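During the reporting period the student researcher (J.K.) took over the structure-prediction task from the postdoctoral fellow and processed the backlog of single-chain submissions. One of the processed entries is reproduced below for the supervisory committee.
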Amino acid sequence: MLDVAAQNGPLIDRLTEKAAEVIRSGHYILGPEVEAFEREVADYIGADHAVGVSSGTDALMVALMALGIGRGDEVITTPFSFFATAGCIARVGATPVFVDIRPDTFNIDVEQVAAAVTRRTRAIIPVHLFGQACDMAALSGVATKHGLPIIEDAAQAIGTKSPAGPVGSLGAFGCFSFFPSKNLGGFGDGGLVTTQDSALAGKARVMRAHGSNPKYYHSVIGGNFRIDALQAALLRVKLPELEGWTSRRRENAARYDAAFSASGLDESLLRSPPRRFEGHIYNQYVLRTSRRDELQAHLQAEKIATAIYYPVPLHRQECFAHLGYAEGSLPVSERASREVLALPIFAGLGRARQNRVIDAVIGFLSR
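J.K. obtained the following structure tokens:
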């Protein structure tokens, strides 16, 4: 699915040199490398403020804690996402309220968000899933009407654009991940919180350092959510390459789209992911097919890696059974979980390997 070593290979000398610089410097916790990375990545994303944190999960935790969300509160979100999206809501004591997704983009259905708002709703967390932006203009309209902050889960969407602007700059907070499989992947866990609000940025910085400001004086309870200086330094080496990698992912996606469109297969057998906005960065290329499990088994036999994002929607996870979402309650998400299959899309895939994937997919589904 992803050849991380091949991507990092051309940068190995610069990465090694930068790692040695950090080791020699003695600045391992926050410090100049973190500050420089925060400035550079904020500029790339289009946000006024960026706060480096320990993971994409902790970015969500910091955002929720900075907004004071906790027990008795509700947060509206999608059931079709990585677990952290809803898990963090529960961890701060609030209740995730799931609404269904759009059948075309896999992103949250804004009309259903509007219908789910109650007097206990304190925030909305949309997910820019697989690198495609949600309809932030429409969602912002709902949020503004009800006086609710938006926390953008942009873990898979660094560099994604929408007609409303770059993701991560459109809500109260944006939350990003530098997990190694992301378009900008680190060498372990790492994350980022972005905001246009200087007061919220200040709260996020306090939250990531156990709620202390100044050191040893705690007005609130935070956590140890700091990004490592070494991770920040290595991400600084990779950041200038990101736009080129994203461009090649888009080229790969276009080749998949063209080949699958020309296959003549019925949409029930093969549906490419639609690109609703031009800013899609394709952290994943996820097709839909009614023969998903058979196709995955065939590709595995051909030694072609695939992945299922996500086999069980969040509202049907055992840990959320107490919320009372019965099977069939969010049918679009449930159907997606039975039909989605992600194909290799990474920048270094190359035409020969991609053609092998295309031939295997079309060949099997044409039988």
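The committee noted the following: The chain has two domains: 4-241, 243-365.
J.K. will present the remaining backlog at the next meeting.
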